[in-house]
Amino acid sequence: MERYKVVRTLSSSFCTTCALVEDQWTGKRYFTKTLFLSNATKIHIHQFRMEIHVLSLMDDPYIPHLIDVIEEADQIMIIETLIPGKTWMKMTEEKRQFRLKKRWILELMHLLENLHAHGFLYMDLKLENVMVYQDHVFLIDFNACLPVGSVQVYMSSPSNQTPESLTQKRKEVSTDIYALGVMLKPFYKLSLYRLWCLKCTRKNAKKRFRTMRSARFYFLLAGHIRKGMCLLLFILSVFFYNILFFQSAPQDLIHDYQLQHHQIQGGIQEKTQRLLSEWIVQNRLRKEVLSNEENASFFLEQSIFSRSQSIVSYLLENIPESMQKKMPLQIQLAHWITQQEHSYDASLLIRSLQAIQEEKDIFNKGLHILVVEQLLLEKEIILEKEGRLLLENIHKSWTINEIQENKELFKEVACIHAEYLLFLRSREIQTSSLPQAFIESFQKEETFMKLFELFN
């Protein structure tokens, strides 16, 4: 607990406290939620552990990432990534004529659909639990989640409870769809969206949308239908749009992605996660697109760099097996990212490091070793002597000029390598020193120098 210093208490109740904390080792700030066991009921403890379970399974750039869980005799603390945005509730309070963007609602439906795909219902959808940061929607506070098919509701807000929440009936996806309709209804007084909200909030669960996919389809349909526009014209317009879009040359698609990626603010990994998630939601990375070898190779590389299990899984499912055989190293890295267990094949890892060592493209070589070392650190894998020597040789191969040409990437490479060496030292494994090229290139970078100081 001494590692995380409280910067500011954000909220407090009789059994929980939420706070902003700072990691004394890295200087990063996180959000924490602490449950005091002496004041908590069995239901509070059960749902607190449920939140931990759900966050540990989910891997989406638009929900908090679980950093650590600290359990002590009298309390349990969850440490999550900090989302410094504003809730929809706060935005409505600040601006009387506040209007929701259609894209935000679609992003929210995508987050809920991802949760449902993991077998859980959110159960507490309200304006206070939806945040906007850098013009994207984030979903927070998963302590009311229940497995799909549960009959008992433990924690949810009275304002959006469904009729079946008060009974012992099974709770299905339509329960979250009802809450979504209740939340959005005040924003749509007279429009086709109002009819959509009414469909979501039917008292009979069987008369609502049965899946989030169907709810999203009709929401999009309502947005496209205007005065006198018939459904047939809408379908034809979508049909011709898809024909024109998917006939685009691979170079045009990749160029469009790179242009958008360059315009987004933030770190490389964060930008990659965000943009790939958007393109997947927009159906821009369908099987037809990924059946092109150039597209498949490029976007698989990007998914590996995103380190998002859900994004990597999507690419693996949609790239033809015949193409996967042509890129064995990328496929192996992709499978390691999606692998839940901490076990690994030592010989396969050695062969992968050897393949990385022989790569000619400096950027790809840096990208691949960054992903491998992040996975080693995350899964707490201790390389054998041969693997440690390969890792050392790879990092000593960079020249200062190569690092400067790809400085944003190599800053992350240097920091992750330093963290992994510190991890090995914590396990009493003798390690090499940090490469001199890293020290000279990043001696003015605060994060790297903090790690470097721990070596002395």
Question: Summary?
Answer:
By secondary structure, this protein is an alpha+beta fold. The protein has 21 helices and ten strands. The chain folds into four domains: 4-81, Phosphorylase Kinase, domain 1, CATH 3.30.200; 86-225, Transferase(Phosphotransferase) domain 1 (Transferase(Phosphotransferase), domain 1), CATH 1.10.510; 248-340, no CATH class; 356-456.
Instruction: Please report which band the strand proportion falls in: under 5%, 5-15%, 15-25%, 25-35%, 35-45% or over 45%.
Output: 5-15%
What is the total number of structural domains?
Answer: 4
Uncertain stretches: 243-249
CATH H-level superfamily of the largest domain: Transferase(Phosphotransferase) domain 1
Q: Report helical residue fraction.
A: 40-55%
Largest sheet: 5 strands, antiparallel
CATH fold descriptor of the largest domain: Transferase(Phosphotransferase), domain 1
CATH architecture label name of the largest domain: Orthogonal Bundle
What's the N-to-C terminus distance?
24 Å
Individual helix count: 21
Rg from alpha-carbon coordinates: 24 Å
Average residue-wise pLDDT: 86
- Tally of strands: 10
Output the structural class.
Answer: alpha+beta
The coarse overall form would be: globular
Would you state the CATH class of the largest domain?
Mainly Alpha
Give the neighbour order of strands across the main sheet.
Answer: 1-2-3-5-4
